[in-house]
Design a protein that fits this description.
By secondary structure, this protein is of the alpha/beta class. The protein is built from 11 helices and 13 strands. It binds N-carbamoyl-L-aspartate.
Length: 358
């Protein structure tokens, strides 16, 4: 298997690596001119199988600001995917053209699947409802720059905690800094997946669940709002039952700490009233801009390739065992080997992290 610095899951790397990226992003932000030729002659391929504004454009701008160039598609309907080309062939080909691939795909585990046969490093720009590591790097950089710390924070995550990949990645990352606590604010239907709650428990991290934002907003140092992920619901009725349940407005902001930071990966639908935009605690537009600097740091670090690459597969192939998650890439791309971690009768899928009982 190739030895690249892929970024599939931030937790594949030690915290010291994330911190290195944060320092580099800070330097780049202060002196962008010094980095304007750092990736001259390099090409980034962006394969976006799902809609995106910020992630795609901030990656593209990041590469252009580093002096590199970009190729790719943002609508698979205009590529050979529309003719039925599988993930393996598309990524194999484009990774042969580019020096780094950035990929977003609606199916969980798809980016790791692509990395298995890619000929260059692959970055996960969101795989279904699973993970979104570069949004988390953006969030970490925003908190570092705006709050000056990643420790001892009470972080409220509000909205669609079940399908929101940004929240999954953020919680997994913030758990690795000391003293952080989580308040998980959602309806029962959209609660955080059990495997992430188990991870919090195993790490000894304090968390509580709440149904009402009003009841807990006063405790928070950070409020991470998310939209209800309409595209991940099986029926429009199910989405309509959840829509509009959480709306942050001026009235709620009055109950919040004077230095609480409001983050949102964006796009917003209706979960933050426009009137909150003028509150100086609203950091979501700055957050989107921080995303460009941290992605510059990431591209540069990956292309310099002077770290130890994490293993893409840590477990082993289990012939005849099928992942219990119907949304896992292994059910769509049948040629994929079924890799699992674990040695007991509960195995963890290497692509989507869901558990399967055997
Ligand atoms: C997020 C995503 O795609 O998961 N957007 C982003 O990348 N900034 C959040 C969302 O779509 O709700």
């Amino acid at each position: 298997m190739p030895d690249f610095l892929n970024l599939i899951d931030l937790n594949d790397y030690p915290v010291s690596w994330w911190n290195g990226l944060l320092s580099l992003a800070h330097e780049i932000r202060l002196s962008p001119q010094e980095y304007s030729k750092a990736c001259e002659g390099k090409i980034m391929g962006t394969l976006f199988y799902e809609p995106s504004t910020r992630t795609q454009m901030s990656f593209q701008t990041a590469m252009l600001r580093l002096g590199g160039t970009i190729i790719g598609f943002d609508n698979p309907a205009t590529s050979s995917v529309a003719k039925g080309e599988n993930l393996k062939d598309t990524t194999k080909i484009v990774s042969g053209y580019a020096d780094i691939l950035v990929m977003r795909h609606p199916v969980e585990g798809s980016v790791k699947a692509a990395a298995l046969t890619a000929e260059c490093p692959v970055v996960n720009a969101g795989d279904g409802g699973h993970l979104h590591p570069t949004q988390t790097l953006t969030d970490l950089f925003t908190l570092t720059e705006e709050k000056g710390t990643l420790e001892n924070l009470t972080i409220g995550c509000c909205g669609d905690l079940k399908n929101g990949r940004t929240v999954h990645s953020l919680i997994k990352a913030m758990t690795c800094y000391k003293g952080n606590k989580f308040v998980l604010i959602s309806t029962d239907e959209l609660a955080l997946p059990v495997y992430i709650k188990d991870m919090l428990t195993a790490a000894g991290v304090e968390y509580k669940e709440a149904r009402d934002l009003d009841d807990v907003i006063g405790e928070l140092d950070v409020l991470y709002m998310t939209r209800i992920q309409q595209e991940r619901f099986s029926t429009p009725e199910e989405y309509m039952r959840q829509k509009g349940k959480y709306i942050l407005d001026k009235k709620k902001m009055k109950k919040a700490k004077p230095d609480m930071a409001v983050l949102h990966p964006l796009p917003r639908v209706d979960e933050i009233a426009i009137e909150v935009d003028d509150d100086e605690r609203a950091k979501y537009f700055e957050q989107a801009k921080y995303g460009m600097y941290i992605r510059m740091a990431l591209i540069l670090t990956i292309l310099r390739n002077n770290g130890a690459p994490p293993a893409l597969i840590k477990g082993r192939e289990r012939k005849g065992v099928s992942c219990s998650n119907p949304g896992c890439i292994t059910h769509r791309e049948k040629y994929l080997p079924h890799y699992f971690e674990g040695n007991s009768d509960i195995l963890t899928c290497e692509y989507c992290d869901m558990r399967t009982l055997i």
